[in-house]
Specification:
Largest sheet: 10 strands, antiparallel
CATH class of the largest domain: Alpha Beta
Number of helices: 16
Helix content: 25-40%
CATH topology of the largest domain: Vanillyl-alcohol Oxidase, Chain A, domain 3
Radius of gyration: 22 Å
Bound molecules: flavin-adenine dinucleotide
CATH architecture of the largest domain: 3-Layer(aba) Sandwich
Shape: globular
Distance between the termini: 27 Å
Strand content: 15-25%
Length: 473
């Protein structure tokens, strides 16, 4: 389509239309997303930076009449799927308002907001909902795929707290979706929510945050050569029965501020006294004969939420891939095999990897995540003890070898955990084939999602990367 043909769309908008003709603005819009490597690979037709719901309806109706595919992205724009070749990108970056009703304990979140926008408003009332564990990640993308955060062991995935959506359908209608109005679509939205329309607002049930939002958190670190011993102790510690779900202990391989490879336990302890939270951390810090550095302290939850932001700046080159794993914690062979895999891949990290942005993460995903049955929402990644992820950043924009080696490192790490693989989380799967997509959703879930897609977007107008697999069958 010629760019001139889009000009009649511009005259109906209150927001901004950016076409390829406007080279400078188009380039800036294209490179605005978080992952520079992915931004450079896609050439959309145009961007519509909408001012509100009406602009979304106008753009959807226009694109439908011209048979132009649509993608959507928010302020976060972290995923590879917010843009597609020759699609119009509806950009919600200006729709970031978050309103909290403290009496009803509900949040009304405009779909362009990022996690930090949400935490900022909910914390004012000592209330909380799950957002991503990097605060500049979009709330929408995280929530539409399921949404796991630092406190999911206590509060479950985001989708378990969603009570409703406002969305614009492929027909350009503005509808409310919730359990009473359309239970089947409500089920599908909670796990595969980017497929059926454009969400304009989320309504979330909030939870009380004890101690005015102060928790015990931040890493306890050891030199990397202690990883074998410390990770084994950590796996034994998280297997203890009767642990409170308000205690989450994550494990990470990362680099110290001086650039040395280290490993760490990251505690997130909610609702304890300062003395009892510290006592738990004292116990952890004794692993491996004693920690190198202790950063654990009484901190606002929102500070923890933003603590990783600088490790993942906008405009870098990144790849990540993860898998949910399970094992019998009493099976020492299984535990050793997981620990050995982690230690091996950390030691084989490509030498060009950006130290600040390269991690192996092992996150606890049991507890409240597993309480809702897998069929209760379309979010299916509820089984498994740990969410294991490799994340890597590389420096050189034009070095195809660095890109390939980075991807390979993540892929190999996930493949090596194959014997323990139980499920894959859509938002972290980077599925590149139908077979991989099938690993995300159980057969029955996939069938229900396909018929929802057929009903709500039969022409696959919302052409959103990974999600198009389900549409094409
Ligand atoms: C640094 C980093 C940290 C992360 N941490 C976590 C984490 O802690 N927990 C977790 O669960 N995941 C995490 N993820 C994965 C994350 O959930 C996905 O990358 C997610 O897609 C990012 O959402 P976004 O809104 O930033 O991206 P976007 O690219 O804006 O959107 C993601 C997808 O949702 C669609 N979409 C966006 N807005 C709408 C809308 N309003 N209506 C319909 N569709 C829409 C887009 O088209 C796209 O397909 C992380 C990712 C990164 C890169």
């Amino acid at each position: 389509m010629a760019d001139q043909e889009l000009t009649d769309l511009a005259s109906s908008l209150r927001g901004e239309l950016i076409t390829r003709d406007n080279e400078e603005a188009f380039r800036a819009a294209r490179l605005r997303g978080w992952n520079s490597d992915l931004n450079r690979r896609v050439k959309p037709l145009a961007f519509v930076v909408v001012s509100g719901v009406r602009d979304i309806v106008t753009t959807v109706n226009y694109c439908r009449s011209k048979n132009i595919p649509i993608t959507v992205r928010g302020k976060g724009a972290h995923s590879p799927y917010g843009m597609a070749d020759d699609a119009v990108v509806i950009d919600l970056m200006q729709m970031t308002a978050v309103r909290v009703d403290p009496e009803k304990k509900l949040a009304y979140i405009q779909a362009g907001a990022n996690g930090g926008d949400v935490d900022h408003e909910t914390a004012l009332h000592n209330l909380v909902c799950i957002t991503g564990s990097v605060s500049h990640t979009g709330f929408a993308g995280v929530a539409l795929g399921g949404g796991l955060g630092h406190l999911s062991r206590w509060l479950g995935p985001v989708v378990d707290s969603i009570v409703g959506y406002e969305m614009v359908t492929a027909k350009g209608e503005v509808v409310r979706v919730d359990e009473s109005r359309d239970p089947e679509l409500f089920w599908g939205m909670r796990g595969n929510g980017a497929s059926f329309g454009i969400v304009t607002e989320f309504v979330l049930r909030l939870h009380d945050m004890p101690n005015e939002g102060i928790i015990r958190c931040a890493p306890i670190l050891w030199a990397a050569d202690k990883a074998q011993e410390v990770m084994t102790s950590w796996m034994s510690r998280i297997a203890q029965p009767d642990r409170k779900e308000t205690e989450t202990l994550q494990f990470a391989f990362m680099h110290s501020p001086d650039g040395d490879p280290v490993c760490g336990v990251v505690p997130l302890i909610v609702g304890e006294t300062e003395a009892s939270g510290k006592a738990t951390c004292d116990e952890l810090a004794a692993f491996g004969g004693g920690a190198l550095v202790r950063q654990d302290a009484q901190l606002p939850y929102t500070a923890m939420q933003a603590a990783l932001d600088e490790c993942f700046p906008f405009g870098g080159n990144y790849w990540d891939k993860g898998v949910f794993i399970d094992y019998d914690p009493n099976d020492t062979t299984a535990v050793s095999s997981i620990v050995d895999t982690a230690v091996k891949y950390w030691s084989q990290m490509p030498d060009f990897a950006l130290k600040l942005s390269t991690f192996l993460l092992f996150l606890e995903v049991s507890g409240a995540v597993a309480r809702t049955p897998s069929s209760g929402t379309s979010f299916s990644a509820r089984t498994g003890r740990l969410w294991a992820t490799a994340l890597i950043g590389w420096p050189d924009d034009d070095d195809a070898k660095q890109r390939a080696a980075s991807k390979q490192w993540c892929d190999d790490f996930v493949a090596a955990l194959g014997p323990f693989h139980v499920t894959t989380y859509l938002n972290n799967a980077m599925p590149e084939s139908e077979a991989e997509m099938r690993g995300v959703f159980p057969e029955e879930t996939l069938k229900r999602l396909q018929s929802l897609k057929q009903k709500h977007d039969p022409d696959n107008m919302f052409k959103m990367g990974a999600w198009q697999y389900e549409a094409n069958k």
